[in-house]
Specification:
- The structure holds two protein chains of two kinds.
- Chain A is mostly helical.
- Chain A is built from 21 helices and two strands.
- In chain B, the strands form two sheets. Chain B has a four-stranded antiparallel beta sheet.
- Classes of the chains: A mainly alpha, B alpha+beta.
- At the A-B interface, helix 2 and helix 12 of A face helix 3 of B.
Chain lengths: 448, 115
């Protein structure tokens, strides 16, 4: 059932001032900017509180957007209220009550007994229900937006939308896909959640582990899209990393007993500490071992190591994210690349491979083995992966192989591998880096 | 983006008696909200400027000056480092702080140069 409140749905709404308005009235512009900022702060809590009451996040978001429309109409002339969050919630609450009344009337007509009616009969107090503690709601919203019934793409888009407060346009821009694609993805995701009768709740018991893994996967996907963009002209997109970090940190506050949440936060903090160092003066990528470590962000490293410590204190053995954070920490602790404890990194990769065996982990392990025990040992492991079907078009396989071959003085083979790697990546700066490596190998061959 | 929030206080408040338990509690509540929203990266309070020093540079010459710095109207008494998505977001958070006096300066930190 659709309510009359669908007019503001699916992010067609633009928060910024309309054309001409801004220049005419700086006061209005200021109000619009304030509203945009307040929306970013409040929207997730607003949607979460409403979703618990109305049962689905699609309707909750529409109600929240309606409150936003009301704010856009009133605040520029009447001024921003003293407690804007409470104002938005109050406005949305009225609309939620209207909606539930209409639903009840309709349900009675159709002799359907829905949860609204049951609740009304129990003397359920909607007002009080909306005002309850929001912590669990927010957690419920995260779990619902990242529900495994949704595709990965859908989970990412919905999470950025309802938890990040991003508009459809902003998400589309971040992922370099058409606005309509993201719009449809979000509409379909909401519909899927309704059709699958996904309950708005914080899962417990046996289900919790798998559901949490799905949440962590979404957050790390967002981070990685920012950290090493899969496509496009930018090598990194820090805003996506920051958003993923923000979500991770919020989750760590909401679910402090989950070791893997702290593990993921630690991993992202430490990786993000290198953001400034992994881009050269002209936007070209600088790989880990070539980075100027003085440019690593000490604050993020410190935060990352603290989060890793929390993960380690919570459970005897680290999970996959905690282990990857521990690997990242090995790099963070080394003052120079030469001081890196590669033997420990190999041991940590062994542990990761045991928990979550995958060809990509094997490839990473091969790199560490190459550093710890020499390029020949690393190459043996990489050669065993060449026939692996899932790595057929993975550009880092030939890139790693090229690197090891080059160290062994097999320049011609290395050049071919770098060229193959360059042809496999969609990221422009990364392709250029690989082409440069290929050219260097060719030059070495000439010289040798 | 990262912003540095500097809490500036006059010489009077700098030396004033410690805040009441109620004020402290309100401040704690606000700070917890900031932490839950993943806004705070770092926070700190400073000892009064009477315990501070200044180093003045003049060519090769360095002069150490002892506090308090009476000639300054506003002194930094504390700071926050926040992670926000815009200056406006920082302002909206800051407006919610339970203070009834003082001036807070909001400055964006330079990051990702050349990116």
């Amino acid at each position: 059932m659709r309510s009359s409140s669908t007019r503001a749905c699916e992010g067609v709404l633009t928060i910024g001032p309309r054309n001409g308005e801004a220049s005419a009235d700086p006061g209005r512009l200021e109000a619009h900017r304030a509203i945009e900022a307040i929306w970013r702060i409040e929207s997730a809590r607003l949607i979460a509180g409403l979703a618990r009451v109305v049962g689905d996040i699609g309707t909750a978001e529409e109600l929240a957007q309606d409150a936003l429309v009301a704010a856009l109409e009133q605040w520029p002339t009447e001024g921003v209220p003293e407690r804007p969050g409470a104002w938005l919630m109050g406005t949305a609450k009225h609309r939620a009550i209207d909606l539930i009344r209409r639903r009840n009337t309709l349900a009675r007509k159709h002799e359907e007994i829905g949860r609204d009616i049951e609740r009304a009969q129990e003397g359920w107090d909607l007002d009080a229900a909306i005002d309850e503690e929001v912590g669990d709601d927010l957690l419920g919203l995260i779990f619902t937006a990242c529900h495994p019934v949704l595709s990965k793409d859908a989970r990412v888009a919905l999470t950025l939308r309802v938890l990040g407060g991003l508009t459809t346009e902003e998400i589309a821009r971040a992922f370099l896909v058409p606005v309509s694609t993201i719009g449809q993805r979000i509409v379909r995701a909401k519909r899927t959640l309704v059709e699958a009768h996904v309950r708005f709740e914080v899962p417990g018991g046996a289900e919790r582990g798998a559901r949490l893994a799905s949440v962590l996967e979404v957050i790390y996907l967002i981070f990685n899209e920012g950290y090493s963009a899969t496509a496009g002209r930018d090598w990194v997109r820090p805003a996506l990393c920051e958003e993923a970090l923000r979500l991770g940190r919020i989750l760590a506050e909401l679910a402090p007993a989950e070791s893997e949440v702290h593990g993921l936060v630690a991993l992202m903090e430490i990786q993000a500490s290198r953001l400034g160092a992994r881009v050269g003066p002209s936007g070209d990528p600088v790989l880990l071992l070539d980075q100027d470590r003085a440019r690593w962000d000490r604050l993020l490293i410190r935060r990352g190591l603290a989060a890793l410590e929390r993960a380690e204190m919570l459970r005897g053995a680290l999970g996959p994210y905690g282990l990857q954070a521990a690997i990242a920490a090995c790099h963070a602790r080394a003052t120079t690349a030469a001081e890196t404890d590669w033997a420990r990194i190999v041991a940590l990769y062994d542990a990761v491979a045991q928990l979550t065996p995958s060809p990509v982990i094997e490839l990473n392990r091969a790199v560490a083995v190459g550093m710890a025990f020499g390029p020949a040992a690393g190459l043996d492991l990489v050669d065993a992966l060449v026939a692996e079907p899932s790595l057929m078009s993975y550009h880092l396989l030939p890139a790693v192989r090229g690197d090891l071959l080059r160290k062994l003085g097999r320049s011609e083979e290395a050049r071919a591998e770098f060229e193959r790697a360059a042809s496999l990546t969609e990221n422009v700066p990364e392709r250029e880096l690989l082409q440069r490596r290929a050219a260097e190998c060719a030059a070495e061959r000439m010289a040798g | 983006m990262r912003v540095l929030i500097m809490a500036k206080e006059g010489e009077q408040t700098e030396a004033a008696s410690p805040p009441t338990p109620e004020a402290m509690e309100e401040y704690q509540k606000f700070n917890e909200e900031l932490v839950k929203a993943a806004v705070v990266l770092e926070a700190g309070r400073l000892y009064p400027s009477s315990q501070g020093k200044r180093v003045r540079f003049d060519g090769k010459k360095r002069t150490v000056i002892d506090g308090p710095f009476a000639e300054t109207k506003e002194l930094v008494a504390g700071y926050w480092l926040w992670q926000v998505r815009s200056i406006d977001e920082a302002l909206e958070w800051l407006k919610r702080a339970p203070y009834d006096g003082g001036t807070f300066e909001v400055r964006e930190v330079v990051e990702y140069e050349g990116m």
